[in-house]
Structure formats: structure tokens, C-alpha cells
Design goal:
By secondary structure, the chain is of the alpha+beta class. It has one domain. 22% of the residues lie in helices and 21% in strands. A hairpin with a 3-residue loop joins strand 7 and strand 8 (126-131).
């Protein structure tokens, strides 16, 4: 019996060791901007912006906002976003979002993983969050300091007692009320780095549990369909987004960029240059609302683009066709360049 117990312990230790090795290998996978470029290309378009290139999702509503179609869960890495968007894995755990003039909400790529790159504002009644500005940089041990406050209209608010376990789209407070609710809440921003992995723990668990009337379960990160990635070793400073030059270089190296048609190149060249005003207001409590999202709509079917077909003209029989007049040789040549009376040449 003792022998079987020892064997069971050895098997358990082997399984734990295997899981630890798998987790270690998982966090060691290299993440590249080029990989994001290929992954997201079928779901939207890449456009030039001040951050190198930004990705604009297609087929979303004009009033769509990031971190709105999905739910929050609490994992071993803190508050983690679980997206229901068809492309929703990477853009909510790498890089961040910015409201770009002419394009609306656009994703700015980065290579540092987090459960969610958001800043919070909360009370006993409401919890709100908004994407961090692309300009945020913090130390290797994390971010602890003044709250990063963005435009009030960029926050998504839900009742505190409905914050966990529900799709945000079903419980979200109207966006028109965001500014009023924001003034009743407390902004907070915080990220810690432990064992090389960024964690999102700024929102107090006690507040959410008290409002919900029960203990919140800590779930595995696998429930979020994402995997933690350790920050580069020896990093003294961590930036949410990648350098613009690296993003441009990665985008230019992709096959899609090389095979771009001349027409699309001219379209991009002559398009209005997008400007991101949000990063300039990142640390201000008040700001203008984000630019209205101008999304590409599906092209209408041909039968709806064209007018009703004109009736075909009856062909004139050849025998009734007018005969050309014979030249007599006395016709006066037509003066094509003659100016109308009174007009100077």
C-alpha cells in the first residue's frame, strides 16, 4: 500500500513538473508585430498613423467601443478581459486602442502582454474602464502613481453588482450617462509585474464582492483564451505600444504590403492623414469626445448601385439609313477656332 502511495506521489509530481514546463514554454513564445499584421488583416485594414500603423476593425457599429463585447473574469493575473469579438484575442492583451480622427477606434500594436490594458474608475454603484493611451510607459516593477484619466466619454460603465459574469453589452449603462457617472466615481490605474508577467489588480476585489454579495471565483487564464507572456529580460521600462519605426518596418515586410495594388496605394496616399488627439489629453480629466467612427460599409450589390436599365434602341435598317451628301468641292471649310462675336482671341 505504501508503495502505491509513493508511486502516486511520483506521478503527481511528474504531472506538476510537466505543467510547469509547459507554462514556462508558453510564456517564452516570441510575439511579433508581423504576426499581428497577418492575424488581423482579414478582419479589418491597416492604416498609417502617428504610431507607425494602426489596425481598424471592419463590420462594427459606428458607436462601437473596445472592451465592450465580452466579459470580465478574475484570474491569477488579475482582472482579465474575455472578448466575444471574432478577432478579439490579441488586441485586448497586447497594445492598446486610440480614437484616431478619420478612422475611429483603432488598435495600436505592442508586444507586452497584460490581462487587459485599461484604466479604471469605480464606486460602490458603478465600475468603468477605458483603454490606456498609447503614450503610457512604466517601470519594470509595474505602474503605481497618479490615475491615467482619459476623456469621460471613452469609459464603459456597468453597475458594480453586474460587473462579473455577464456580457457587458447586456448591462452597459448608456454612453450618454458616462460623463455624469464618471464624476461620481474614483479613477485608479495600477499594474504590477511579478515573475516577469504584468498583472492587472488595481480594481479592489472587496468592492466588487461587497456589491455582488458574494465571493468572486478566481479562474484559470485559459478561460480567457489567452496565454501570459513574460516581459523581455532586463527591461528597465515597459511601453504599452511598440516603437513606430518597428511597426512600420514590420508592416512593410508583409506580403500583403508588397502586393498592394496601385489603386489602393494611391487611395492611401491621398487619404486624409489621421491625427490622434487622445494621447495629448491622456493625463487630463476632461476632454472632447472621440471622433465619430467612420467605418467601411459593405458595398451594395450591383442591382442596387445601378439605375433601371434603359430600353434598347431599335436598330435602323440599313436601307433607310441616310445617304452621305456628295462633296461638290465648293463647301466652305469650317473655322473651328473662330471666336464668338465680340470675344477677343
Amino acid at each position: 500500500m505504501k508503495r502505491f502511495a509513493i508511486q502516486a506521489l511520483l506521478v503527481t509530481a511528474a504531472v506538476i513538473g510537466f505543467a510547469a514546463q509547459a507554462a514556462q514554454a508558453q510564456v517564452g513564445v516570441k510575439v511579433t508585430i508581423g504576426g499581428f499584421y497577418d492575424e488581423l488583416a482579414p478582419y479589418g485594414r491597416w492604416v498609417d498613423c502617428r504610431y507607425g500603423q494602426c489596425w481598424v476593425p471592419a463590420r462594427v457599429a459606428a458607436d462601437w467601443q473596445p472592451y465592450s463585447n465580452g466579459q470580465w473574469i478574475y484570474t491569477e493575473y488579475g482582472w482579465t478581459w474575455v472578448s466575444d469579438d471574432p478577432w478579439g484575442g490579441s488586441p485586448y492583451h497586447y497594445g492598446t486602442w486610440a480614437s484616431i480622427e478619420g478612422y475611429g477606434w483603432s488598435w495600436v500594436p505592442g508586444t507586452v502582454w497584460a490581462p487587459a490594458w485599461v484604466t479604471w474608475s469605480y464606486s460602490n454603484s458603478y465600475v468603468g474602464w477605458a483603454p490606456l493611451p498609447p503614450t503610457v510607459v512604466f517601470g519594470a516593477s509595474g505602474y503605481v502613481g497618479r490615475p491615467v484619466v482619459v476623456s469621460q466619454t471613452q469609459y464603459v460603465f456597468v453597475p458594480t453588482n453586474r460587473f462579473v459574469g455577464r456580457n457587458v453589452t447586456t448591462v452597459r449603462v448608456s454612453a450618454q450617462q458616462s460623463a455624469s457617472i464618471f464624476r461620481q466615481t474614483r479613477p485608479v490605474t495600477g499594474f504590477s509585474v511579478s515573475h516577469g508577467i504584468v498583472r492587472n489588480t488595481a480594481l479592489p476585489m472587496e468592492t466588487i464582492e461587497r456589491a455582488g454579495g458574494g465571493k468572486i471565483e478566481t479562474r484559470s487564464i485559459q478561460a480567457a483564451r489567452t496565454a501570459p507572456r513574460s516581459v523581455p529580460a532586463g527591461s528597465a521600462r515597459l511601453a504599452v505600444v511598440a516603437p513606430a519605426r518597428d511597426v512600420r518596418a514590420a508592416a512593410a515586410a508583409r506580403p500583403q504590403a508588397a502586393s498592394r495594388s496601385p489603386e489602393s496605394s494611391r487611395e492611401v496616399k491621398h487619404a486624409k492623414a489621421p491625427v490622434d488627439h487622445e494621447s495629448e489629453r491622456a493625463m487630463q480629466a476632461h476632454g472632447a469626445p472621440p471622433a465619430e467612427s467612420h467605418r467601411q460599409t459593405a458595398e451594395a450589390p450591383a442591382e442596387h448601385r445601378q439605375g433601371p436599365p434603359r430600353p434598347a434602341e431599335a436598330k435602323r435598317p440599313a436601307e433607310h439609313a441616310p445617304k452621305p451628301k456628295p462633296h461638290s468641292g465648293k463647301e466652305k471649310p469650317v473655322e473651328k477656332d473662330k471666336k464668338p462675336d465680340g470675344e477677343k482671341p
